[in-house]
Design goal:
Rossmann fold, alpha/beta, 13 helices
């Protein structure tokens, strides 16, 4: 698990913005802030960052009675991404390498993250992602793994981003691919509802991981998800949250696709903040 004191301050910033949009009293916001401080003080050495975020969202829901505070943003993100599909599909079809083009689009979609970025330009990010070199590039090994895999488990991340994942999955055209979403709403992470809104069921089997942390935490996921996880030949993991929860496994089956959005992750991966990476920890360890 990746955890760092800077993660606390990042969450303070994120929840501060979230509190501003919630119609609750100043007293409630003060009390939530105290709850946040106390949770960190009492359990900072027990909770990884994704689970800390999960606990905070659960506490906040107790004050707001709002089970899905980013519901509007998620729907808008899905709509915005779906509107781009015809143009993006044409780019993929005309590309010299549809696999790499679709994969780059999927990574660009990772910018749609309201915890890290309350404002983002998806079209600009797409343009940059289509040409920018990867800071870590295990894409050819991923291509080979897709070709040889009997089964693929694809771990989704955010709403909106799920549309770009769908384009990549469609391009891969693997006959046995399962797409996993969060068990319940947390931040703007994709859920079953987002899979239904964006047509993910047309290209993949869809399951929930059974847990509402903004990550994949195997020990807390559902039995169904764990069965899929352990039997998969290949696991494609999107986003920083999933990397935080899984990278310590050093599992050769897992390829992490993400944009590096913070200094903590940049230092861990030894890349610049803002980089795009296709990363397999075992390949990196063998190279180094």
């Amino acid at each position: 698990m990746i955890s760092d004191y800077r993660c606390f301050y990042c969450l303070v910033k994120s929840f501060g913005k979230l509190l501003e949009k919630e119609p609750v009293s100043v007293e409630a916001k003060n009390n939530f802030t105290l709850d946040m401080i106390n949770l960190y003080r009492d359990r900072y050495d027990q909770l990884c960052t994704p689970d800390f975020a999960r606990e905070l969202h659960a506490i906040l829901k107790g004050y707001t009675n709002n089970p899905d505070p980013y519901k509007t943003e998620k729907r808008e993100g899905n709509r915005q991404a779906l509107d781009m599909v015809p143009e993006l599909q044409t780019l993929i079809d005309r590309s010299e390498d549809p696999f790499i083009t679709a994969m780059r689009m999927s990574i660009a979609g990772n910018i749609m993250d309201f915890a890290a970025n309350h404002e983002f330009d998806i079209e600009k990010t797409l343009q940059e992602s289509l040409v920018a070199p990867f800071a870590i590039d295990h894409s050819e090994q991923l291509r080979a793994a897709v070709k040889n895999a009997d089964s693929i488990l694809y771990l989704g991340d955010n709403a909106g981003e799920i549309v770009f994942d769908r384009l990549f999955i469609k391009t891969m055209a693997h006959k046995n691919l399962t797409y996993a979403v969060r068990g319940m709403p947390v931040i703007n992470d994709a859920t079953i509802e987002d899979a239904e809104q964006t047509g993910m069921y047309e290209v993949a089997e869809v399951i929930s991981n059974g847990y509402d942390a903004p990550s994949t935490l195997i020990e807390k996921s559902s039995d169904e998800f764990r069965r899929h996880f352990y039997k998969a030949s290949l696991i494609i993991s999107k986003g920083q949250g999933n990397l935080e929860g899984l990278v310590a496994l050093n599992d050769s089956r897992i390829f992490f696709l993400l944009m590096v959005k913070c200094d903590v992750m940049a230092e861990f991966l030894k890349v610049e903040k803002g980089s795009k990476v296709v990363y397999n920890s075992m390949i990196s360890n063998n190279i180094n």
